[in-house]
Amino acid sequence: MINQKHSQKEKDNEEIDEQLQEEIQQFLKEKEKIRSIIGKIGGRPTKNDEIINIMFITLVITSFIGSIMLSGIWKTLAIDFAILLISLKISYMLYSASKVSHFQFWILSSIEWRINQMEKELKEIQKSLKKGNNNK
Fold first, then answer.
1. How many Cα atoms occupy the beta-carbon half-sphere of 63 within 13 Å?
2. HEC profile of the chain
3. CA distance linking residue 128 with residue 134, whole number of Å
C-alpha cells in the first residue's frame, strides 16, 4: 500500500517535471520569436535606416549650404526644402516610436493575460491539493 502511494507520487512528480520541461521549451521558443519581432519593429537600425538617415542629413546640409550660396527666391526655396525634410524625418520618427509603443503595449497585455491564466491554474492546483490532503 505504501509502495503504491510512493510509486504514484513518483509518477506524478515525473509528469509534473515533463510538463515543466515542455513549458520551459515553449517559453524559450516564444522568447526567441519576440526577440526577432522586436528587431524587425525598431530594436536596431537596419542598413536601410542608415542609408535613409545619411540621405536625409546630406539633403538637409546641401539645402542649407545652397541657401547660403543662392539668392532671391532660390534661397527661400532651399530653406523651405530643408525644413520640409526635417519635418518629414520627425514625422517618421514619431511613427516609428508609436509602432514600438503599440508593440510594447501588446506584449504587456499578453503578459498580464498569461499571469491571470497562471493564477487561475495555481488556484485550481491548490484546491486539488487541499482535496487530496483532506482525503488522507
1. 17
2. CHHHHHHHHHHHHHHHHHHHHHHHHHHHHHHHHHHHHHHHHHHCCCHHHHHHHHHHHHHHHHHHHHHHHCCCHHHHHHHHHHHHHHHHHHHHHHHHHHHHHHHHHHHHHHHHHHHHHHHHHHHHHHHHHHHHHHHC
3. 10
Residues 40-56 have pLDDT tens digits of 665 566 788 889 889 98
CA angle 25, 31, 32 (to 5 degrees): 95
Cα 63 → chain centroid: 37
CB 64 within 8 A of CB 79: yes
pTM, 2 dp: 0.53
CB atoms within 10 A of CB 84: 13
pLDDT tens column, 2-38: 566 667 777 777 887 888 888 888 888 887 887 776 6
Other Cβ atoms less than 10 A from the Cβ of 4: the count is 8
Q: Kindly state the cell numbers that stand for 7.
A: 510509486
